[in-house]
Amino acid sequence: MLALLGLFLAALVAATLIPAQSEAVLVALLLDRSHPALLLVFVATVGNVLGALVNWWLGRQAQRLENRRWYPLSGAKRERAQAWYRRYGRWSLLLAWAPVIGDPITLVAGMMREPLRVFLPLVILAKGGRYTVLALVTLGLM
Question: What residue spans of 61-101 are helical by DSSP H?
């Protein structure tokens, strides 16, 4: 049970703007084979999607939080990010799985007021897909 909680927390933190590696935790647990692979992929996906929801919520709060020192997008950076999102739109959320750009995309989606009913399915598909491919590769099935 602790292993699943650790995976969930690693995936949640990794999806926020805090640097973390949930993939290493998932691979270690997959190789340990003490839990079903499908359960591990599910737990990692749920944690990672919840972390993306934190970013989306922070983006929705952007106007209130923008002047805080820790807030990552202000001024010109914010304007560039919004212009990028306007150009590529909601389908860019399919890149939410990608290192470096994935987490900021979820933040900007919130800033751009992307509806949750659109945000969630795309992010679930992206993040769940990444963990599924990682599990298949780790287990030698792909």
Answer: 62-65, 76-88
pLDDT: is 19 or 115 the higher one? 115
Tell me the average pLDDT across 126-137.
Answer: 98
CB 40 within 8 A of CB 123: no
Distance from C-alpha of 69 to C-alpha of 86, rounded to nearest angstrom: 26
**Residues with Cβ within 8 Å of residue 72, at least 6 apart in sequence:** 17, 104, 107
Tell me the per-residue pLDDT of 6-60, one tens digit each, with 9 for 90 and over: 999 999 999 987 888 899 999 999 999 999 999 999 999 999 999 999 999 999 9
Using left for φ > 0, alpha for ψ between -120 and 50, and beta otherwise, residue 81 falls in alpha
Provide the domain limits for residue 44.
2-138
Total domains, the chain: 1
Query: In terms of Cα–Cα distance, which of 1, 128, 103, 3 is closest to 53?
Result: 103
- The tokens of 26 are what? 């998932």
